[in-house]
Amino acid sequence: MKVLVTGSAGFIGFGVACALLERGDEVLGLDNFTPYYDAALKERRNAILERYPGFSLLRGDICDPAALDERFDRLGAGPDTRVCHLAAQAGVRHSIEHPDEFLRDNVLGFNLVIERCFKRGVGGLIYASTSSVYGNNRDPLLREDSDTDAQVSLYGMTKKANELQAAVHHHLYGLPCTGLRFFTVYGPWGRPDMALFLFTDAVLRGHPMRVFGHGKMQRDFTYVDDIVNGVLAAIDRNHDFGIFNLGAGKTEELMDFIRQIEAACGREGEKEFLPMQPGDVHRTSADIARAREQLDYRPAVTIDRGIPLFVSWYREYYGI
């Protein structure tokens, strides 16, 4: 298969690209190495991808039509071509502070990508959505048909806009579109702005952890390898149209998550308990029944296994 992966130097994009290359697919990467977080981490991920003969990278922006045209020219058309669109501005709090970036990259950029998918005859589009689309929904278990009207962040709103546009393009043009709602992804090579990265860094360096929501939040923490397996299943099955939750299917208390980090680090960390931040939600809990049935999605890594794997990677990467 021939797959264009946007955001190939990002956390999930890197994992997906590696898995595709390992099984023999050709991967066309596109990434602009935005400095939202340490670009050196993205360069290290990309250096690993560059070792594969089936990989080629274009350093470019999804909002640059010329860069997209070059990648789509290389991709070609036909049933064995896919676009796996993972490039986006991420982060709930960052979206509140920089709304223009999110509207540009997540809405305009998505439009430029999906327009080329159907005009160029690509076999299917698989794109990243997020659990943030559920906003302030208080359902104990979030299903794909749960209400998504109570948005609390610009990030969630832009991803809901992506889902709506995909539905319209499938209806009008028959483009196969699969949206994947990721739930709090963690693991080696992760994003430095995410909780696991921040907490591990604080514990190992002896700094206080800033624990928002007074530690009472609950999250469906999902290990990156499980997410990657779900993305590859969506690429392979290429449903005509679908939206799937990709989570662990198990909700964890934030303080239990922190205790696992402390155990893996071999020390207890100082904690600074703070109120909830704007745009955040108290709980996420994924119903993954649809993904189990239609993608054969089987998350396997629990936090007692995944967190030590991350901490081990972190110590090696940063020499701590």
What does this protein structure show overall?
The protein is an alpha/beta fold and 320 residues long. It has helices spanning 11-22, 39-49, 65-75, 92-97, 99-119, 154-173, 195-205, 224-237, 254-265, 289-295, 303-318, and strands at 2-6, 26-31, 55-59, 81-85, 125-130, 177-182, 185-186, 209-211, 218-219, 222-223, 241-246, 252-253, 271-273. Strands 3-2-1-4-5-6-11 form a seven-stranded parallel beta sheet, with helices on both faces. A two-stranded parallel ribbon has the order 7-10. Helix 1 (11-22) links the parallel strand 1 and strand 2. The model has no long low-confidence stretch (mean pLDDT 95).
Shape: globular
- Describe the sheet with the most strands: 7 strands, parallel
Helical fraction: 40-55%
Structural class: alpha/beta
Strand elements, count: 13
Succession of helices and strands: EHEHEHEHHEHEEHEEEHEEHEHH
Q: Largest sheet, order of strands side by side? A: 3-2-1-4-5-6-11
Low-confidence stretches: none
Mean pLDDT: 95
Distance between the termini: 40 Å
What's the total helix number?
Answer: 11
Q: What fraction strand?
A: 15-25%
Our Rg estimate from Cα atoms comes to 19 Å
